[in-house]
Amino acid sequence: MPKSFRLRPKRGTEKFFRPPSRIRKDEKRQERWSDEYREARGIRDSGRWKKLRDKIVRQNPVCEHCNTSATSDVHHIEPLVERIDRAYDRRNLIALCKHCHDVAHQRDKMGDPIRAELEQIANDREDKYER
Question: Domain ranges in the chain?
């Protein structure tokens, strides 16, 4: 490729250009690896969590939110990063399909009050199991 068409300098010849979007990604990556995130990752990788997750998926084969799709994920109503003490608390966990789980995370990031809906479902479930 002729030099006149090169958009960025070669690495090592001049200071390498980093677009602002790349810088933001690096900042997010640093954020992601804070102590809280590391601790949450450790819980998600633990055998205790995997056994509990499998048990919840077996007990609830259908999504507790939409009641139509098969359960594929277990969602923490209050995120692990915020409430690490409720990591294994059954009242903080809800079985969701992939679509509902993704929507729950998107709505939570946007500030939409999805937690109240999920807490209500979890409370109704507790009442059902107590009977």
Answer: 18-130
Task: Report helix, strand or coil for 6.
Answer: coil
Q: Is the pTM of this model over 0.70?
A: no
| Residue carrying structure tokens 């059902």 | 128
Average pLDDT of the residues of the chain: 78
**Alpha-helix runs per DSSP H in the chain:** 20-32, 35-44, 47-59, 98-110, 114-130
User: Residue 40 and residue 36: Cα distance in Å, rounded?
Assistant: 6
Torsion of CA 65, 82, 127, 100, to 10 degrees: 0
79: which residues sit within 8 A by CB, 6+ positions away? 40, 108
